[in-house]
């Protein structure tokens, strides 16, 4: 399996066109899945716009992304502002190459005053979904900083964890330390898609990463616009240097 992680340079307002471009590029590169950042639609730092622009689960954004997935025969994972029946949510959806929804998740751990003021906390535990013979899990940004969420997904058999994020400058310890730790301690691949540049006064730190189960980067971006591509083969999940924590937990089960 080959996956792509898109790091967006802020300043491009035509986000739908950017999704189409990335989906085409990833597809032409032979990728099976494309991961986009947190709140790719309508944008992360929009404190006055999330409630106004949020859309329902089957709104225009969802229809458009499904069309791009079908046109390019690729799964697309994207963050977006969801208008639920009981609140506005910082959500992420997984769209299969046939345009159907494979998984949907609402962010549990809201970060900072902006998110707290504009979104409701997700109430459902992250789910594991199956795609191309692998078990995938889904978290959003700040969620990955809590070991409990990644561990819960690992104990359900997650092999590849997808994390749309909007990580500001000043938090490089997340992609540099915490993401590799989550990958190693849970024996999983972690793909982490961030922004770079500035959006309405907020500067993002880039450093998107695809990290292997041994805690080492398979691919890592710098501070600019980037599309990371990595092959996820069986060899990444094998080897004497991988963690045995999951198997050694009392009551745990080895995968």
Give the helix/strand layout.
Layout: E1 2-9, H1 15-28, E2 33-35, H2 50-53, H3 60-72, E3 75-84, E4 87-95, E5 101-106, H4 112-118, E6 128-131, E7 134-138, H5 147-155, E8 160-164, H6 173-186, E9 189-193, E10 195-199, E11 202-205, E12 209-211, E13 217-220, E14 226-231, H7 245-248
Parallel strand pairs: 1-2, 1-10, 2-3, 7-8, 8-9
Antiparallel strand pairs: 1-14, 3-4, 4-5, 6-7, 9-12, 10-11, 12-13
Tags for this model:
about 260 residues, alpha/beta, six-stranded mixed sheet, 7 helices, 14 strands
Number of helices: 7
Radius of gyration: 17 Å
Which sequence of SSEs, written as H and E, runs from N to C? EHEHHEEEHEEHEHEEEEEEH
**What's the helical proportion of residues?**
25-40%
Morphology call? globular
**Could you describe the largest sheet, including whether it forms a barrel?**
8 strands, mixed
Name the beta content range.
Answer: 25-35%
Extended strand count? 14
Q: Please state the structural category.
A: alpha/beta
Low-confidence parts, pLDDT < 50 over ≥5 residues? none
First-last Cα distance: 19 Å
* Average pLDDT reading: 94
Question: Explain this structure to me?
Answer:
By secondary structure, the protein is an alpha/beta fold. It has seven helices and 14 strands. It has helices at residues 15-28, 50-53, 60-72, 112-118, 147-155, 173-186, 245-248, and strands at 2-9, 33-35, 75-84, 87-95, 101-106, 128-131, 134-138, 160-164, 189-193, 195-199, 202-205, 209-211, 217-220, 226-231. The longest helix has 14 residues, at 15-28. The mean pLDDT is 94.
